[in-house]
Amino acid sequence: GRYITQDPLGILGGLNSYQYAGSDPINWIDPLGLIKVADKGVEGIVGKEADAQLVPDTFVSDVTTHNKQIGQLNAKKTGISGAHNQDAFLESVEMTGAKIVGPKHTDRRFPGLIEYQYQLPARAANGPNAGKIIRFKKVEKKTTYDPAILSDAKVADMSNRAAKQAENYFRNNPHKREYSVKVDGYWFTVTKNQNTGKISNAFLTMPIRNIK
């Protein structure tokens, strides 16, 4: 049969509003398409955007790998990528020839966190000094965690919860790429991939003093 009342969603014209139920109003109890039915491979009109999962299923394992990776540089080669695990960071410093500058910073409000300042070396690309350090790049900061106080698993779990807390913010602010979230008393910076729209990371940060 056909529905003769106006489309309540106000999206499609015509008489066939049953198409919101996958054109099967007999087996689908939701002829208006208001219920998300992911296991059937079909979503209602509401839910396709509002309920889209922004945190990948591999997020915990991805974050764990990122935190423990050694010797990787960021895309601009100005800083050490990942290595938020303190042991991984110190090994990365040694591997890349970087140097730690200034005192390390700790805060008793955030047990286990250590912030370092460091510089990567700039090496001659060619000539008689090719490969040799000719100067050091600008000072970068890295917030690390002591795995003896905050285990890799604990940090990954907190990162995952931070990412999930940030989902609604990114849905409501689709043009934003970063958001700060507090989990178990620790601050995380949650980032979103501009190309995929998915949350890509949530890493520990040492906040400035006026953040309570």
From TrEMBL:
InterPro entries: Rhs_assc_core (IPR022385)
CDD domains (alphabetical): CdiA-CT_Ec-like
Domain of life, per lineage: Bacteria
NCBIfam families: Rhs_assc_core (TIGR03696)
Protein's recorded name: RHS repeat-associated core domain-containing protein
Protein species of origin: Gilliamella intestini
Taxonomic path: Bacteria, Pseudomonadati, Pseudomonadota, Gammaproteobacteria, Orbales
